[in-house]
Amino acid sequence: MTDPHGFLKTSRRPVPARPVEERLNDWNEVYAGQALLPLVAEQAGRCMDCGIPFCHSGCPLGNLIPEWNAYATRGNWRAAAERLHATNNFPEFTGRLCPAPCEDACVLAINADPVTIKNVEQTIADRSWEQGFTTPHPPERLSGKSVGVIGSGPAGLAAAQQLTRIGHTVAVYERADRIGGLLRYGIPAFKLEKRYLDRRIAQMRAEGTKFRTGMDIGGAVDAIELSRRHDALVVAVGAMERRELPVPGRELCGIHQAMEYLTLANRVGEGDLATTPVTAEGRHVVIVGGGDTGSDCLGTALRQGAASVVQLDINPEPGDARTDTEPWPVYPKVYRISHAHEEARGRAGTDPRFFSSATLRFEGDAAGRVRALHLTEVEPVARAPRPDTERVIPAELVLIALGFSGPERGTGLMTQLGLVLDARGNFARDAGFAATRGERPVGAGTDGVFVAGDAGRGQSLVVWAIAEGRAAAAATDRYLTGATALPAPIAPTDRPMVA
């Protein structure tokens, strides 16, 4: 264990991000180049090695956090990396992208500041690569079974890596021109530099996983034929059915879905475009939606040189501390500042968010371009407009970041594989991740179709996607061989801890 008095002697000190004025001038990660050691090793020593570590419950992967904290504080990075990778295929992704519900579940958080678990995780992952501990793990023998994974986001990649390592022949099919799903085109480079994604994909290729891009399964590529080609399929296409904003003026030019905007910005970073056709440069930008996607749009707009940026959040402004309705160890709704919010405050001096605010309508010019947004304050529960609170703000670029309501509806993939939707609008599945299938066309193949990630769970976190991929891989292996040694960290019905 770590120093049993470490949490009493050492205060919490997260790794500092680069100065705002520096990072707004590039697309590098906000922590790029920052010294992680010895700060992180010292912070890992604050872990109490609890008898019942609730951080395990806060993380759907069941990460062995006290164990790798103990190794990290002693500088034993190889052992720390082994324990970290025992439960997490891609800790360099979660260490950068996950909002760290494990920290809010840390026992220290009952009455003190939790361990900086996220910083420790990222450091262990990065040190593992730097020191050559992270290497390909090809299977010792092949099973003779073949699996097709549809979708290359974190759930699909995790499922593919687990199934490849156990000995199955795995091919990943991606509709886009590059592997990675939202990790590639949805997450800005200042949160995840794509070289880390490319590095993992190279590792998976070396292990034997095959990747096929430009494969629109259910469209140009027949899903029925694909099901005949493989012994099992894992559907991990994500939740890409975007929520709309049905208000007057939505048809005006200059109003875009957030994912369209972020994808174009990422394509500039990939070198596909010299400039993006949807840019915030010199424009008054309004982001409708207060979640992580809205925050990603905010950071992107600031780097593109927006004249101003406002983010509308229909939820009331939360307090700074937990309330009795959200006790430890649940992930509480408290006032949080993302790096993008910090950047906006550094530029404008105020928080860019308008809480308890909803869009009434858009106003355009004679050419049909959006020029203003009419908003109103709303009641906290009913979300009904408050009388006499309407106001108008300038809007030359509007980004709709209201999240997703499940997998895309009515696609060829859904029809050809006979997939059906559950009550929440996701692909229905049983307790073993097997797809619940309705009427199937003649020749649609046998069973052996599994659903993983946001396609079955709904919009969620990267850490849940990886856990889903690992669990669905175990279910697929059991279907193919009759038994499995692969871990299954969650069930399809598991949900985050709530009060």
Detailed description of the structure:
Helix 10 (154-165) links the parallel strand 1 and strand 2 (169-173). The chain folds into three domains: 5-131, Alpha-helical ferredoxin (Fumarate Reductase Iron-sulfur Protein, Chain B, domain 2), CATH 1.10.1060.10; 146-240 and 405-481, FAD/NAD(P)-binding domain (3-Layer(bba) Sandwich); 245-402, FAD/NAD(P)-binding domain (3-Layer(bba) Sandwich). The protein has 19 helices and 13 strands. Helix 5 (65-73) runs antiparallel to helix 6 (77-85). The protein is 33% helix and 12% strand. It has helices at residues 6-9, 20-23, 39-44, 55-58, 65-73, 77-85, 91-97, 101-104, 117-130, 154-165, 182-185, 194-207, 223-229, 258-270, 292-304, 339-348, 412-417, 454-457, 462-481, and strands spanning 146-150, 169-173, 210-212, 232-235, 255-257, 284-288, 308-312, 353-354, 357-364, 370-377, 391-394, 397-400, 449-451. It has a five-stranded parallel β-sheet, with helices on both faces. Residues 26-132 form the Dihydroprymidine dehydrogenase domain. One of its GO terms (molecular function) is iron-sulfur cluster binding. It comes from Streptomyces lydicamycinicus. Residues 146-469 form the FAD/NAD(P)-binding domain.
